[in-house]
Amino acid sequence: MSGTTTALQTVGARGEVVHVVAAGNARTTMQRNKISAARSLQRENHRFFSSRNTTTTTTTTTTTTAAMSTESTPTSDDENNNSNKKDRFFLNFFGFPFPLVPFLFRETKVEKIYENVYAFTQQQGIGFGLGVSTNVRMTVIKLKDVTLWVKDPIAPTEECIALMKETFGEDYRVSSVVLGTTMYEHKIFLPSFARAHKNAKVFVVPGQFSFPVQLPNPLLGISNATELLDSSNPPPEWLGEIQYEILGTFNLFWSQYRYSEGTFFHKKSKTLLVTDAAVYVDGENPPDIIPKEELRDLGSEESFTIKLLRGLNFKGGRDVERANDVSDEINGWRRMTLFSLFIAPDAKNIINPAKSFNAMKNKFVVSPIVYVIVFQFFREEIREWKKNCQRRFIGANRVVASHFPVSKKATAKDFYLAFKFADSDSEVPSYYSDPLDLGSLELVQKVLNFIKVYD
């Protein structure tokens, strides 16, 4: 991430956040009325927008309509669509090495994980119509003093802020905003979210960087941030409630690129919180924020991705026939999973993803790109981190990552199994069932090794 890009990111987000802060309080009462009206309409005539259905069950995703017209009933689809867009607006045209989409409008959904533990999700991908898309999750915990602890903030759109008010009350207060990673796709939202919650203290894992030019945190839009350096001494704001361990810092690209991640443990709910270290691949249930039409499109033979693959004969994919064993929607989720994790899996597994997908389904897995580029070279450090987590975070019975679904059954024990490869000096994770899926990533890694980025 270059210095020029960073400056543009800050400016691009700043105007949008000012708009949110200025408009948020004035719209609050109106938004609550609109939400109530939307729910009433849904019960009475089931004619409300399919994309804005509201669920009040505490264990499922709740989509709250914070963006209706100013009247008590919708007057037209166009008016409501325009209102939805306005409440979901967040400007971002930048990303390294790919631009992060959506560029302009980000829908937000909220899910209750446990008592006082909530997940707010938005969709995120690399664009180009290639199907590399997933969810990005912000986890919010209500502390004993009723203030909020926020991990890995997402874009603070009007809809996002309205959902936080709907969930935690009109006068909710964020006491801590925590960036649990050094990775760009999460820290891009930190400056704007912190500005929208000016009384919150900001905490970041060590090793924050910009690439290829190193800039101090304030120039990255991260002002007055405290680095989480001593895991034995958590900040007083969450002392006694949340513990943490740091995985990393791992230096790459002549120490110009750094991987660091925090693992947090909420004692009361016994919840382990991670960012990218491992994700849970649900076999049947894709993240709710990903539109079903996108899944169906990617799962069909008419999708742009499949046509491009066949047209270019990528890895011999032109002659591979699809096995019609599942619906386009499930097939799309399988393909999207492989794209998100492997980036460029083998052609036969793009067209028929069942084998590669089934080897990972209903498990925590380390993303292949993280394993190939980073983790395989730092096995001793991963072993030490895992040992410390197991020793300190006793009784962890759920794990919430910042991507992919949250499992209702998997525990921390299942999470730690994803890192079994680190117990040896050369083992490859067993859930990578086809070595050809790793081919493109291994080629990139060989190039990086040739130019000695690990020295």
Low-confidence stretches: 1-75
What is the number of E strands?
Answer: 14
Q: If helices are DSSP runs of H or I spanning 4 or more residues, what is the number of helices?
A: 14
Instruction: Output the radius of gyration.
Output: 22 Å
Q: What is the first-to-last residue Cα distance? A: 21 Å
Question: Residue share in helices?
Answer: 25-40%
Topology as H/E string?
HEHEEEEHEHHEEEEEEHHHHHEHHEHH
Residue-averaged pLDDT = 82
Major sheet attributes: 8 strands, mixed
Which geometry do the CA atoms define? globular
Question: Largest sheet, order of strands side by side?
Answer: 1-2-3-4-5-6-7-8
**Which structural class best describes the helix and strand composition?**
alpha/beta
In terms of DSSP E residues, the strand content is 15-25%
Short structural summary:
The chain has 14 helices and 14 strands. The protein has 455 residues and is an alpha/beta fold.
